[in-house]
Amino acid sequence: MAGSIRGCDMSEAQALGLGPGRARPAARLLRYHRTAIVAAAVIVALALLAVFGPWLSPYSYDTLDWQHLAIAPGFVASHWLGTDPLGRDLYVRTLYGLRVSLLIGVLATAVSVGIGVAWGTVAGYVGGRTDSWMMRAVDVLYALPYLFVVIILATVFGRGSVAMLLIAIGAVGWLTMARVVRGQTLSLKRREFIEAARATGLGTPAILLRHIVPNLAGTVAVYATLTIPELITYESFLSFLGLGVQEPLASLGSLINEGARQMLTAPWMLLVPAGFLVALLLCFNLLGDGLRDALDPTGR
Amino acid sequence: MLGYALRRIAGTVPTLLILVTLSFFVIRLAPGGPFDGERALTPQVRANLDHLYGFDRPLGVQYLRYLDGLVHGDLGLSYKLRDESVAGLIAQGLPVSVTVGLAALVLAIVCGVPLGICAALRRAGAVDYAVTAFATLAIALPTFVTGPLLALLFGLVLRWLPVAGWQRGEPLYLILPAITLALPVCAAIARMTRGSLLETLNASFVRTARARGLGPWRVLLRHALRPALLPVVSYLGPAATYVFTGSLVVETVFALPGTGRYLVQGALDRDYTLVMGMIILYGALTLLLNLAADLAYGWLDPRVRHE
Between residues 269 and 298 of chain A, which touch chain B (CB distance below 8 Å)? Predict the structure, then answer.
């Protein structure tokens, strides 16, 4: 409950009828969902820009250009998006920030998908007392203010270490996933092909890996897509507060923080990174919503 | 109802204890302490400091002493802000945070519900598309982006409102922080109201009400809206949590003297007692607000409390 503002949980997934094994028709439907396609294209473009964009500029993210302090966007000395008061190129710094935000967002989502799927399938499939204890743990964690958990973890495990930031964010992102996956597993395990697998003498781990998990792919893909923007927001938020990525490296969050402090004299320092973050978050949300619609049979 | 309420209240105590225990021990795992300053302390001073804050005792004893103080409303002394008790700092900052949070919550409900109703009544019309687009955008944008952007637009470009500051709760200074916090919650409420109202408008009891010849307003307000607002009520708990968490950002962006900034400052300074106090404060607030929302839900929908 304390998780996301979107507040989607298992019951919602069930209400939407996000069933297993709808991946292929969904892909076809998605082709007709223009907004989602455009959003996906923008995400790919942003990712390519984050990876290759910095090479186009003669500057590095920590080069100090004393001749051009806090200049506005333009064509002066190849500072296309201007510089900050230390003369660092905003184009390169923003793209580095984009790189950090994307990397942490995607990897932390991978961490939380891993934990969430493992936790949810085991709880749902084994059932009984194991299930109730595992889900009670999730309930307790849900009740904690997630951002404070992230802040504690980020404080304890050292500021600035990208790896620790990743684990801290991934560790709180898996709760919704665990609930959704458990709900799906519960309905899957009563199906005949699972019974058949058990009748042939397959062990629990093999059933989980070979029969349950592949059938969860569609649902997991939807929630993973919706988890990415959420975790990117966490990362940017921590960096905004000064608890995340440390100078001279930048994340979109730390750049926005810097920009907010300079907005009287250099408003572009706020507008450039804010624009990139807005585009990124909006596109991931639109793609996730589109995927969810595509998998939702009531929408057809 | 009373039994349900008591069960729910009893359920929050262990959660709070887990929160306290977990954060107490996890924070102490951190490398470096609050006294590892730029100046090296003489061993004697160091020993005195450790004694004052109880660091010379075993960890278990420290934990029990902390719990004992907590029960008596004593959250300890701040390590960095000398001469300040954590409870005192909270008492100073909390009124500010609560004022901003409540203003934002009221604003979100007052704007969100009518927006959702309008969108649902004019389904697939211009209003509906506008509300949906607004909701998508406002939910996607974090407060640390909207806050500075609003301050830039209304404070620096248009010069309608003060950019930052508090001025002892002057209403003019409250507007931008409240709007910043309210935006995503308002959007979520609008979206939720729209969705569930569309569902109830198609329900058979609404058709019956129409068939009985009731006017459209009466059908909407007395019959369709009530059940449609149930999900919104249950969302108010998470929404309130979101607003109080968001106050962290808003207090940083708009330089408000609330409690949120203590958490960040405490985390940066390794001020254990301050961070602990803030976590307990926000944890308790979260639990209480979720509890209140659940109780309200149980009151509105009798099926819930008999589960």
Answer: 270-271, 274, 277-278, 281-282, 285-286, 289
Q: Which of A153, A240, A272 to mutate to test the interface with B (most CBs of B within 10 A)?
A: A240
Chain A, 152 to 181: residues with Cβ < 8 Å from chain B are 152-158
The per-residue pLDDT string of chain A (300 residues; one tens digit each, 9 = 90 and over) reads 333 444 444 444 444 444 444 555 666 666 667 888 899 999 999 999 988 888 877 777 777 777 777 777 777 777 777 777 777 888 888 898 899 889 888 999 998 999 999 999 999 998 888 888 888 888 777 766 666 777 777 666 666 567 777 877 887 788 888 988 998 898 888 888 888 988 898 888 888 888 888 888 888 888 888 889 988 988 888 888 887 777 778 888 888 988 888 887 888 888 889 999 999 999 999 888 888 877 765 543
What ipTM is given for this predicted complex? 0.76
Instruction: Read off the pTM.
Output: 0.80
Distance of alpha carbon B85 from alpha carbon B208, whole angstroms: 62
Q: Give A152→chain B minimum CA distance, Å.
A: 7
Cα(A29)–Cα(A298) distance, rounded to whole angstroms? 13
Q: How many A-B residue pairs are in contact by the CB < 8 A criterion?
A: 130
Q: Is A266 left (phi over 0), alpha (psi -120 to 50) or beta?
A: beta
Confirm or reject contact between A253 and chain B (CB < 8 A): yes
Beta bridge partners of A89: A83
Across the interface, which of A2, A157, A241 has its CB nearest the CB of B264?
A: A241
d(CA B153, CA B203): 44
Cα–Cα distance for residue pair B240/B227, rounded to 1 Å? 21
